[in-house]
Design brief:
Elements: E1 4-6, E2 9-12, H1 19-32, H2 46-58, E3 62-69, E4 72-81, E5 90-97, H3 106-119, E6 125-131, H4 135-143, E7 147-158, E8 161-171
Parallel strand pairs: 5-6
Antiparallel strand pairs: 1-2, 2-3, 3-4, 4-5, 6-8, 7-8
Helix pairs in contact: 1-2
Length: 172
């Protein structure tokens, strides 16, 4: 994937040298939002994160794009396709954006890039899971062609309260 630049934000695949920035990002974004499947307690050692990034970059079923604002990660999308033959055309993604960058179209840009990549890499179905009460994300996904396909009860547990997950998908 070629690097893209929009204003001061640069969109590119991470390199192993970005591992410290991504660990910082994951801790920050996990701490500031309950909409994610993880919290801010990230315990991946730096060397392991470098290995993970290297794996992403060498796996044809993985698409990772990070929005960088200088030396700071502002948003990230990770798509994982299936290695199983019968479902090799399907994958799922997760996305997050630092709160201070909400409303700046970073999420939309990351998703558009993933959809473009998917269309050129044999992916014909993209899935995602979102909290049922995350209206802002659901609205964005709907605008981008994703439709609600189901519900998973008690998918999230935040402060002892269960929240259902909405499964959404888009055909390419």
């Amino acid at each position: 994937m070629k690097n893209m630049k929009n204003n001061r934000i640069e969109y590119r695949a991470p390199s192993p040298d970005d591992a410290p920035l991504l660990l910082d990002y994951l801790k920050a974004v996990g701490s500031e939002s309950d909409n994610l499947t993880f919290d801010g307690t990230v315990s991946v050692p730096l060397e392991k994160e470098r290995e993970i990034i290297e794996h992403w970059n060498n796996d044809p079923k993985v698409f990772v794009l990070v929005a960088f604002d200088g030396q700071k990660a502002a948003g990230m999308l990770h798509f994982q396709g299936s290695g199983k033959e019968r479902i090799s055309h399907v994958g799922e993604f997760g996305i997050s954006v630092r709160r201070e960058y909400w409303g700046q179209s970073i999420g939309r840009t990351l998703i558009e890039a993933m959809i473009h990549w998917a269309g050129h890499n044999g992916v014909t179905k993209i899935n995602l899971l979102v909290r049922e009460d995350n209206d802002r994300a659901i609205a964005l996904y709907s605008k981008m062609g994703f439709v609600m396909e189901g519900c998973t009860s008690r998918m999230f547990c935040i402060d002892g309260k269960y929240i259902d997950g909405i499964m959404m998908g888009r055909e390419i």
